[in-house]
Specification:
By secondary structure, the chain is mostly helical. The protein has a single domain (2-91), classed as lambda repressor-like DNA-binding domains (434 Repressor (Amino-terminal Domain)). 63% of the residues lie in helices and 0% in strands. The protein has helices at 2-12, 17-24, 28-35, 43-53, 57-61, 76-91. Helix 2 packs across helix 3.
Length: 93
Amino acid sequence: MLNKRIKELRLSHGLNQVAFAKELSVTKQTVSNWENNNIQPSVDMLVKIADYFSVGTDFLLGRDNAPTLRVDGLSETQIAHIEQLVRDLRNSK
């Protein structure tokens, strides 16, 4: 599941493997190996990936299917705007 989640998140953010690797200070081959399930990222790298995409590690690992959005560091007003945007997006389906 981890390999699929990494690839899905990378693609949804419009990143190719080279650009994503650069963001994490790893090689393109490392990202490719993660996505092909040849190797697993270290625990430290797993946290870095989760932080980069603002999701929980449980989501990356497939233990939780609901992605979360980290809002720490935002004001209550900013969080309220994000919540409203999510409601609007749900209603527009």
